[in-house]
């Protein structure tokens, strides 16, 4: 089955145009501080390091302010390499339930906090809250996997073909309860993330999902819990950890109370990680550990 046929009936996708910067000459005014003008009179030029948005990449050289003490300041570019814009990423989100993390990421994309767009929702439960939300927002919904009860679901190879046809860059699991097939992992290496409601590797693996995780945390006597975002491999919750957020476990917590506090952190953490992913701020250490570059300081990592 061809990928285009698989996507028949979907709402048309749209692209958000990137706003190009103006090509007008750059101008600036100099401060009126007397000491600054004294400095200019004693030097032919003053150089300043450039700064650029995290949505751009490419090596920038120096911009020189060439100053004549008797004339107005003139900006002159020398050895300037124009940066390339990081393309807006296309995201696929997988859900099995209400999809609150999916909604948080979608809102962040719409508000411009994430340099990407959700182009398809994949679910094993077509009537779940996440699927209904996607339909209301005109986001295509794909049923996966194919089962006896869901004969219109896609096979693993069909799913890969459908995602490829939509030019999906990254896959985000947000409460999707099915094991990801090897075909999809091979097709999207280091490009599939999952969020889990405990501090992995504790309280993870098959059978640890939803409220079961929080009940197990409280029963263990653990003093801390919190969400973990990790890369997906062929097993439950064993992929490389990318980010975590710590939440205290209070003495008289119920599973519902703990779940609510962890979920609040999930919404923030997943948006932050998705933003870093779309801005290409993820790097891999030599030992295979993924790190996130700080947006303000590329030499700092989390």
Summarize the SSE layout with pairings.
Blueprint: H1 3-6, H2 34-41, E1 45-48, E2 56-57, E3 63-66, E4 74-77, E5 84-85, E6 89-95, H3 100-111, E7 116-123, H4 129-136, E8 141-143, H5 156-165, E9 170-173, H6 182-187, E10 192-196, H7 211-220, E11 224-225, E12 228-231, E13 241-244, E14 247-248, H8 255-278, E15 282-284, E16 290-292
Parallel strand pairs: 6-7, 6-9, 7-8, 9-10
Antiparallel strand pairs: 1-3, 2-5, 3-4, 10-12, 11-14, 12-13, 15-16
Helix pairs in contact: 3-8, 7-8
Describe this protein's structure:
- It is a single chain.
- This protein has helices at residues 3-6, 34-41, 100-111, 129-136, 156-165, 182-187, 211-220, 255-278; strands at residues 45-48, 56-57, 63-66, 74-77, 84-85, 89-95, 116-123, 141-143, 170-173, 192-196, 224-225, 228-231, 241-244, 247-248, 282-284, 290-292.
- It is α/β, with parallel strands linked by helices and 302 residues long.
- The chain folds into 2 domains: 34-85, no CATH class; 89-292, 3-Layer(aba) Sandwich (Rossmann fold), CATH 3.40.50.
- It has a 7-stranded mixed β-sheet, covered by helices on one side. A 3-stranded antiparallel β-sheet has the order 1-3-4, with no helix packed on it. The chain has a two-stranded antiparallel ribbon with strand order 2-5.
- Helix 3 packs parallel to helix 8 and helix 7 packs across helix 8.
- The chain is globular.
- The chain starts with a helix and ends in a 10-residue tail after the last strand.
- The relative contact order is 0.11.
């Amino acid at each position: 089955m061809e990928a285009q046929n698989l996507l028949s009936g979907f709402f048309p996708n749209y692209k958000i145009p990137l706003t190009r910067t103006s090509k007008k000459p750059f101008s600036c005014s100099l401060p009126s501080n007397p000491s600054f003008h004294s400095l200019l009179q004693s030097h032919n030029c003053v150089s300043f390091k450039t700064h650029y948005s995290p949505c751009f990449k490419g090596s920038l050289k120096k911009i020189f302010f060439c100053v004549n003490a008797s004339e107005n300041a003139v900006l002159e570019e020398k050895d300037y390499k124009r940066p390339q814009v990081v393309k807006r990423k296309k995201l696929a989100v997988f859900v099995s339930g209400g999809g609150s993390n999916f909604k948080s990421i979608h809102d962040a994309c719409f508000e411009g906090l994430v340099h990407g767009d959700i182009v398809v929702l994949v679910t094993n439960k077509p009537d779940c809250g996440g699927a209904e939300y996607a339909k209301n927002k005109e986001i295509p919904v794909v049923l996966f996997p194919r089962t006896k009860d869901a004969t219109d679901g896609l096979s693993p190879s069909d799913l890969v073909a459908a995602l490829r046809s939509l030019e999906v860059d990254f896959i985000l699991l947000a409460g999707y309860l099915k094991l990801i097939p090897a075909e999809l992992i091979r097709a999207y290496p280091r490009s599939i993330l999952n969020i889990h409601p405990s501090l992995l590797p504790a309280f993870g693996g098959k059978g640890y999902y939803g409220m079961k995780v929080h009940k197990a945390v409280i029963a263990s006597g653990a003093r801390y819990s919190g969400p973990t975002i990790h890369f997906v491999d062929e097993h439950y919750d064993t992929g490389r950890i990318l980010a975590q957020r710590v939440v205290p476990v209070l003495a008289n917590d119920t599973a519902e109370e703990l779940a609510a506090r962890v979920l609040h952190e999930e919404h923030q953490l997943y948006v932050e990680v998705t933003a870093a992913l779309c801005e290409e701020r993820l790097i891999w250490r030599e030992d295979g550990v993924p790190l996130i570059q700080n947006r303000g300081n590329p030499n700092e990592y989390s």
